[in-house]
Amino acid sequence: MKKLAEIFAASAALTLLTLLPVRAAEDTLQVVQQRGYVKCGVSQGLPGFSNPDDKGNWNGIDVDLCRAVAAAVFGTDEKVKFTPLSAKERFTALQSGEVDLLARNTTWSMHRDTALGVDFTGVNYYDGQGFMVRAELGITSTKELDGASLCTNLGTTTELNAADYFRTHNMQYEMVAFEKADEAVSAYNTGRCDAYTTDQSALYAQRLKLTDPKAHVVLPQIISKEPLGPVVRQGDNQWGDIVRWSHNAMLNAEELGVTSSNVETMKSSTNPSIKRLLGLDGSFGANMGISNDWAYHIIRTVGNYAETFERNVGKDTPLGIARGVNALWKDGGLQYAPPIR
Amino acid sequence: MSATWQPKPARPAPTHVVGVWGWMRQNLFATPGDVLLTIIAALALYYTIDVVFHWAIIDASFSGTDRTACLKEVQGACWPFIEAKFGQFIYGRYPEAERWRVDLVYLIGFVGLVPLLVPQIGWKRANVIFMLGPFPIFAFLMLTGGAFGLVAVETTDWGGLLVTLVVAITGIVASLPLGILLALGRRSEMSIVRSLCIGFIEIFRGVPLITVLFMASVMLPLFLPDGVNFDKLMRCLIGVALFSSAYMAEVIRGGLQAIPKGQYEAAAALGLGYWRVTGLVVLPQALKMTIPGIVNTFIGLFKDTTLVLIVGLFDLLGIVQFHFTDASWATPETHITGYVFAAFVFWVFCFAMSRYSIFMENRLSTDRD
């Protein structure tokens, strides 16, 4: 009888324990390690950033960043679960601990960084608002869009950015706004307007839905800054460091020419930068509370930044986005990672 | 020897009323107005069928492994997209190795349901008990797993038709008994019961389903103690069941009100109590009368399940839309094909329900006309 009571007490205590609030904010790394996987918030489907393949697996630049964080923490990129979040619920989900980090094409703005209790840890894709026009018009620059009619989505910053741009450059325009992106695209497709404007990465994706994608060009200029980056909860700097340096490790790997295919041979490299990157020298991983070969696992399983870019949105994918501003700093782009030393 | 009168054999009907031509003359070309209407209808039919036929078959692509299959000069439907994503549309991200569990639940559900629907087959009582008792438990254990050596599959991995069916069937099965109780409660003479039922019905009927789902997924966790986390799908199921039971209650109340007072009084005069009057005399008549309304609510509910997308569950329509974002399938025709597929699946289910309800109405009809 006494034994039965003990079992009851134990199971009651166990139930209570599982019911106790999970304090996610304090030590995310510990929580993640105990749980055994990273919970990553992604979009509900954005081509090239986080979208499903035929088997339902997640693909994309944002998805790869999540996998990189998992590889840094666990040594394998498989220990991650993705939660699709709408734009409205993304920050709430992060703050409530439903996800450990947000890699959801989220624009880094001062308001979000300072007022929402979250921290941005870098920029994994420099986006900006651009324009798509018919190739036959022969337009090569946004400056030539004077008098154009623009198709866009209703009530977004896109609309305001375009208004600002045309006013500051003293150009005439006519705005044709639609409730949904699909409507705007089909209106542009049928010739209702001269140009379609939205974030440049989305322009490439929408172009594939046009009757003849080759007859349309995405103008190279951008008229707004949309740095998209991963987000973590404010106040947990260790976890923030891990996310920040997971991205930086991929950039450094590209800079040093370390790829997923040559990472094993690179282990015998004498280059001190590579030795530090791969954890053969120093204790950079241990300083973040994870193993020293964290970056080695990222490169081994996910690859460097060039690999993830080309695999998901690059020239040989249907999207066909050029590196542009997302090239490394030494190639004239903006992607610049502080050194690992 | 008296000659018996022999009628002449009947002459055949005049040629202008028999055969195909006769039928056409009577039904299509009887008057100049008919001729005009027939021609207009035929033209409309011709153009519609022509367009659909070209789109769905002649100009369509049927095989391929990515978007290049659907980029012809004149491109119709992109069926390879459906083919490649079919598993996703039916099971969602349910692990491929575990999909047999879903199939098994479907199979057993089907085997249990068919004898229930065909009037000639007996064992109805045992069957009903099986379908309402052991089967849901079995389905729950099978689908969620985590016991008896089955791998646990979280409901966040469920999707596609699976979610649609789970939400719709739970809503349908729960809403009928709840709705009957609410309808009876609303007509009850006990004032507390009556006001509770009226309050419940009016609140849920006065709020859009989207709001109910948002409340279930966003508000409900706020009332629960910290860390207690209801499953998202479960929250939706409860929301949908409560919502549809409010509608069901009003449909059934319409039937209850149509029963003449004499029926109640006659039943009471036989010495039957409230529950027997209701169960033996009133409800059988009221339910029979409201079959069209009940099925209408079922069909509406089945289609309303698409709203669970807004709380982050991918039902059939949701998962079709989700896969539009796969750039390796992005073509001008992809989303049209996807929507047509989703519409067709919904239509098949709703049409089947509708036909069965007509069959049931005819069978239960006791009209003497």
Task: Briefly characterize the structure.
Chain A is α/β, with parallel strands linked by helices and 341 residues long. Chain A is 39% helix and 18% strand. Chain A has 2 domains: 221 residues, Periplasmic binding protein-like II (D-Maltodextrin-Binding Protein, domain 2, 3-Layer(aba) Sandwich); 90 residues, 3-Layer(aba) Sandwich (D-Maltodextrin-Binding Protein, domain 2), CATH 3.40.190.
Provide an overview of this structure.
The complex is a heterodimer of chains A (341) and B (369). Chain A has helices at 2-19, 28-35, 61-74, 90-95, 110-115, 157-168, 181-189, 200-207, 237-256, 263-266, 272-277, 284-288, 294-301, 305-312, and strands spanning 38-42, 51-52, 58-59, 80-84, 101-107, 118-120, 125-127, 129-134, 148-153, 173-178, 195-199, 216-218, 226-233. By secondary structure, chain A is of the alpha/beta class. Chain A has two domains: 12-126 and 226-331, D-Maltodextrin-Binding Protein, domain 2 (3-Layer(aba) Sandwich); 129-218, Periplasmic binding protein-like II (D-Maltodextrin-Binding Protein, domain 2), CATH 3.40.190.10. Residues 8-25 of chain A have low confidence and may be disordered. Chain B is built from 15 helices and no strands. Chain B has helices at 19-27, 32-58, 79-91, 99-117, 124-132, 134-144, 161-186, 191-205, 209-223, 232-257, 261-269, 274-289, 291-304, 316-323, 334-364. Chain B is globular, with a radius of gyration of 27 Å. The mean pLDDT of chain B is 87. The chains are: A alpha/beta (341), B mainly alpha (369). Chain A binds chain B through residues 18-22, 44-48, 51-56, 83-86, 89, 182, 189, 205, 208-211, 317-319, and chain B through 67, 84-85, 87-88, 92-93, 96, 156, 159, 225-228, 310, 312, 314, 321-328, 330-332, 334-335.
Q: From the alpha carbons, calculate the radius of gyration of chain B and give it in angstroms.
A: 27 Å
How many DSSP H or I helices of chain B? 15
CATH structural fold name of the largest domain in chain A: D-Maltodextrin-Binding Protein, domain 2
CATH superfamily of the largest domain in chain B: MetI-like
CATH topology of the largest domain in chain B: MetI-like fold
Distance between the termini of chain B: 48 Å
Shape assignment of chain A: globular
The CATH fourth-level homologous superfamily of the largest domain in chain A:
Periplasmic binding protein-like II
Number of strands of chain B: 0
Report the top-level CATH class of the largest domain in chain B: Mainly Alpha
The main β sheet of chain B shows up as: none
